[in-house]
């Protein structure tokens, strides 16, 4: 079986994780390889090409798509560039992976999904948190039914990690934590508890050096009966820094589960109390503390390739991710007005 051929656009801070994962997937006969790289910044393009041994390089995505025969493009630029690049790929009939957040505005997101649907090409948003091993373990417990019907939950990300050092653009946007990190925990809440009927949010800016909000607390009433608190912060000065761990607490009719600090999973069910270490794997190219995120990058890219070969929709297809995007819009809307918002308003 031939490897699928991909072109990667955007060789910045996060792209090395994609490229390391692609290098691993190129070792599998039914995997994929990156045959061309694109970045408008010549230094970043040259550095990535040298590190990952990719000979074909382009300063312009249009030129790359015109010259290369690709099965997919992997877009790892920041959000303002996503729509034009996704539409470009759709025009060339090439499947697309687009990093989160999908776009600066949900109207752009909808246009991107429609462009791919019209062109008949697959589109996946690289919403990788739900592919983290500890969160997959939580989902497996829910699916097993041992805690019964969930009725309450919490998904929490609280950190003081200086994320702006690696991603300076995060300090500049009017929107910060909900758009950048909240999108991950809101998607995790959908992954665990299903769709949301009502959302109420409150936000704060603690760090005076940033333009957007760095703390958000959201109350989600899910359609299937779970009420969840979803909270995130980049200004938490806690005794134990947990970046980038997501903590989860769920109560069900027959038991409960907690994903605690240090990837410790505790499940209470009628059978008793079980404790497990659900730490992510430290892949050879990964670094602590990013390793759980890095493993999820490999998992989601493998999933995309499997779906492309099978002709099935990825879990975080563009159309699915619009539902997560609607939660982001609902959170900003609620925080601005103080009102409870039905995310369907944005769907
Ligand atoms: P970055 O600014 O470091 O890198 C982006 C690169 O894209 C730059 O080198 C820039 O020159 C290039 N670029 C921008 N527009 C281009 C265009 N039209 N054509 C060619 N090249 C172009 O950004 P980053 O920190 O690597 O973030 C990229 C994306 O990854 C963002 O959307 C961010 O939210 C996301 N991200 C995701 C995770 C995750 O866990 N899923 C973590 C970090 C960042």
TrEMBL record:
Domain GFO/IDH/MocA-like oxidoreductase: 136-257
An example molecular function term from Gene Ontology annotations: nucleotide binding
Domain Gfo/Idh/MocA-like oxidoreductase N-terminal: residue ranges: 5-125
Entries under InterPro entries matching the protein: Gfo/Idh/MocA-like_OxRdtase_N, Gfo/Idh/MocA_oxidoreduct, GFO_IDH_MocA-like_dom, NAD(P)-bd_dom_sf
Domain of life: Bacteria
Protein name: Oxidoreductase
Organism: Aureimonas glaciei
